[in-house]
Amino acid sequence: MIKENLIKILDEIPPNVKLIAISKTKSVKEILEAYYQGQRLFGENKIQEMNEKYNLLPKDIKWHMVGHVQSNKIKYMAPYVDMIHGIDSFKSLAIINKEGGKNNRIIKCLLQLKISRESTKFGLTFKQIEEIIKSDEYQNLTHVKVCGIMAMASFTNNIKVIKNEFDSTNDLFEKIKKTNTDFNVLSMGMSNDYKLAINCGSNMVRIGSLIFGSRNY
Ligand SMILES: *Cc1c(COP(=O)(O)O)cnc(C)c1O
Questions:
Q1: How many separate helices (H) and strands (E) can be counted in the chain?
Q2: 3 state DSSP class of 37
Q3: How far, in Å, is the centroid of ligand 1 from the Cα of 170?
Q4: What is the residue with the minimal CA distance to atom 11 of ligand 1?
Q5: In a mutational test of the pocket of ligand 1, which residue from 206, 207, 211, 217 has the highest number of ligand atoms less than 8 Å from its CB?
Q6: Beta strands in 70-173 (DSSP E)
Q7: What one-character DSSP code corresponds to residue 61?
Q8: Which of 31, 124, 149, 208 is deepest in the core (most CB within 10 A)?
Q9: DSSP classification of residue 87
Q10: Which numbered atom of ligand 1 lies nearest the CA of 192?
Q11: Distance 159 CA to ligand 1 centre (A)
Q12: Nearest to 81 by CA among 131, 3, 145
């Protein structure tokens, strides 16, 4: 079914929208099924799990870290990670910069905006994101590049609430983009809300269960 699911989703999203197949908890065999269908972008939310899969799977896969990043584990993914989505502090950026330097890389990152009402979701406020981007401290980092924003909508069936959150995220994205040439990724939309997210300006969707089936944690 993975193959059919993938074909269906790729058929529905416009060519300018990148699909990150979120493979957390899924096996190497399942990931390979998507890989043989042409999928190359995969996302995980735990560094150790991503490392294990990175070691076992073809090296042309681009790995995205979409979970909350723990500072002490950044060094383990710094040699290969393609993009880190969930940055919610300047401190994390500084550590990624240091590890990027050690690996002679510029690591792409997204700042996570806290738009949802849930107190459990991580993230920065609109103001904090603008402040970080403009700060000299950030400008001086040479081995990390913030290329956009990541956001997760509230856990609700109320489409209006979700649309509002996506719209305001896109507003902030477009505003920063005007003065920042590095800014080109808006990562929002998951299995349940990716169509709405794309309509609201998303150009990167993170889809797990719709491709691989539901997860049993
Ligand atoms: C698990 C996860 C997803 C994918 O969720 P689905 O509802 O299975 O599509 C997307 N983004 C993040 C940050 C996740 O942790």
A1: 10, 8
A2: coil
A3: 19
A4: 206
A5: 206
A6: 83-87, 107-113, 144-151
A7: P
A8: 149
A9: E
A10: 7
A11: 18
A12: 145
Summarised one tens digit per residue, pLDDT across range 50-106 is 999 999 999 999 999 999 998 999 999 999 999 999 999 999 999 999 999 999 999
Whether the CB-CB separation of 32 and 53 falls below 8 Å is answered with no
* Whether this model's pTM surpasses 0.90: yes
Of 129, 127, 97, 99, the residue nearest 111 (C-alpha)? 129
Q: Which atom of ligand 1 is nearest to the CA of 20?
A: 10
Q: Is the C-beta atom of 189 inside 6 A of ligand 1? A: no
Q: State how far the Cα of 149 lies from the Cα of 87, in Å rounded to an integer.
A: 9
Nearest to 32 by CA among 11, 51, 10, 6: 6
What is the distance between the alpha carbons of residues 149 and 73, in angstroms, rounded to a whole number?
22
User: Could you tell me the two tokens for 47?
Assistant: 């560094």
Token pair belonging to 144: 């990390």
From CA 198, how far away is CA 146, in angstroms rounded? 21
